[in-house]
Amino acid sequence: MGSSLLGGLLKTGAVNAADVLATVRSEETAAGLRERFGIPITAGGNREAARQADVVILATKPHITPKVLDEIHEELRPNQLLISLAAALPMRVLEAKARKVMPIFRAMPNLPVIVEEGATALCWNGHTTGSQRDYVEKLFRSVGVVVHVDEEQLDAVTALSGSGPAYVYMVIEAFIAGGLKMGLSREIATKLAEQTVLGAAKHVRQSGVHPAVLRDEVITPGGTTIVAIHELEKHGLRSMLISAIEAATEHAQERGRALVRKVEGHE
Ligand SMILES: NC(=O)c1ccc[n+]([C@@H]2O[C@H](COP(=O)([O-])OP(=O)(O)OC[C@H]3O[C@@H](n4cnc5c(N)ncnc54)[C@H](OP(=O)(O)O)[C@@H]3O)[C@@H](O)[C@H]2O)c1
Predict the structure, then answer these.
(1) Among 72, 129, 169, 215, who pairs with 50 as Cys (CB 3.0-4.6 Å)?
(2) Residues with CB under 6 A from ligand 1
(3) What is the DSSP letter of 219?
(4) What architecture is domain 164-244?
(5) Pocket of ligand 1, candidates 24, 67, 120: which has the most ligand atoms within 8 Å of its Cβ, to mutate?
(6) What residue spans of the chain are helical by DSSP H?
(7) Cα of 95 to ligand 1 centre, how many Å?
(8) pTM (2 decimals)?
(9) What percent of the chain is predicted at pLDDT more than 70?
(10) pLDDT digit string, tens, across residues 120-140
């Protein structure tokens, strides 16, 4: 996620390559990212990066982020911005681990930030100013759309748009497989599948019309679409996706509770 966001921010010019200090854990990853982005990326340089930064973006796994904060907290300053991308890791843990009063944001972006079509939800703590919130919103808006939510809604966001690209990739994969099964070439099936998803999403956005209405417009009485829709309904497509988002939300909520218990020493 961190490298996708970095890629998107560099591509749009929202940040200058010369202003970025990125660090990872292993030299192997650092070398790969240096080659990909052509900027200095260090392994194990968290403290140094935090010391020099005005904005610190943490893109480590949720169980690693508290450890990174333990490592860098002495370098953090109240006039920096701290942004955590970690799913499920609550603000109260970030605040406790930062060990100082400072502006902290939680951001839940998704992978399409790399093609400037990300969906990011933001929430923040009580120590942010309007101009800091504008700055962070602008940063993520440069790589897609941004919404603001209350922190308790962030687990649902994680389940819907954070993980969502994975579900859509599965849909595209299955469209391609269906096309292949029916004899289309790989190239043609792929082109049609990706454009169909892209076009349908764009139509929903630009028309502002509920997708159920748009779906109905594709149906010709006695035609092929309704036959396919009947099949999809028999297999519970919509119910399956609703349940997937519900299950993923509950998983994120439980994960958050477990992280709090761990960090606060209850287990
Ligand atoms: N994946 C998504 O689509 C997505 C969407 C929204 C939010 N997120 C959030 O983004 C975060 C990262 O997820 P991910 O899927 O990108 O994980 P990932 O692929 O495992 O990447 C984690 C990165 O953190 C680095 N790292 C690990 N330990 C570190 C340490 N102690 N100090 C500095 N860097 C360290 C790793 O470096 P090495 O490779 O050298 O170990 C790796 O580059 C998670 O908190 C996740 O909840 C992810």
Answers:
(1) 72
(2) 1-2, 23-26, 29, 46, 59-62, 64, 68, 85-87, 108-111, 162
(3) P
(4) Orthogonal Bundle (1.10)
(5) 24
(6) 2-12, 27-37, 46-52, 65-72, 91-98, 130-141, 154-157, 164-181, 186-207, 211-218, 224-234, 237-263
(7) 20
(8) 0.95
(9) 99
(10) 999 999 999 999 999 999 999
- The rounded Å distance from CA 3 to ligand 1 centre is 9
Q: Which CATH class is domain 2-150?
A: alpha beta
Residue 158 near residue 252 (C-beta atoms within 8 A):
yes
Answer yes or no: are the C-beta atoms of 88 and 256 closer than 8 Å: yes
Q: Do domains 2-150 and 164-244 have the same CATH topology?
A: no
| Domain residue ranges of the chain, discontinuous segments joined by + | 2-150, 164-244
Phi, psi of 41 (to 5 degrees): -130, 125
Length of the chain: 267
Structure tokens at 91: 């603000």
Residue type, 42: T
Q: What is the mean pLDDT of residues 22-29?
A: 97
